[in-house]
Amino acid sequence: MPKREPLLTPREAALALGISYPTIKQWIYRRKIRTIKTAGGHHRVPEGELDRFVPPTANAAGTALRDSLRRISGRNQLVGRIIEIRKSGLLAQVRLSISGQTITAIITADAASEMRLKKGETVAALIKSTEVMIIRV
């Protein structure tokens, strides 16, 4: 049985793409973005459809990745793989494996959802003083 792709509401899709709700509604009406209608006639956006609107990221050795990380003010940038995500209420605990070491960051659950973080993905930890930030790479 094929795995079903998660469906997002237009509001969730707009948030993930960083655009306004009225903009995504216009995209839906103009068929710029593919949707599926529910039995009640509501639009749902397949999660994979969002990938068409996000520029492809370069691999860890790529110059595009290095350039984007350089623009961020954090000086200590460590690239690693997500080994665990635990969400509880407003917060998410993200554990990364970086060169055999584990680092944990506490971020908002909304931020983790917006970045669509998943176990096994490569992300960067930005460390500035006592704070650790997670960015999608």
Structure description:
The chain is an alpha+beta fold and 137 residues long. The protein has two domains: 7-53, Multidrug-efflux Transporter Regulator, Chain: A, Domain 2; 63-136, Beta Barrel (OB fold (Dihydrolipoamide Acetyltransferase, E2P)). It is built from four helices and eight strands; from the N terminus they run βααββαβββαββ. The protein has helices spanning 10-17, 21-29, 63-70, 109-114; strands spanning 7-8, 36-37, 43-46, 76-88, 91-98, 101-108, 122-128, 131-136. The protein has a five-stranded antiparallel β-sheet with strand order 6-5-4-7-8. A three-stranded antiparallel β-sheet has the order 1-3-2. A hairpin with a 2-residue loop joins strand 5 and strand 6 (101-108).
Question: How is this fold's topology laid out?
Answer:
Layout: E1 7-8, H1 10-17, H2 21-29, E2 36-37, E3 43-46, H3 63-70, E4 76-88, E5 91-98, E6 101-108, H4 109-114, E7 122-128, E8 131-136
Antiparallel strand pairs: 1-3, 2-3, 4-5, 4-7, 5-6, 7-8
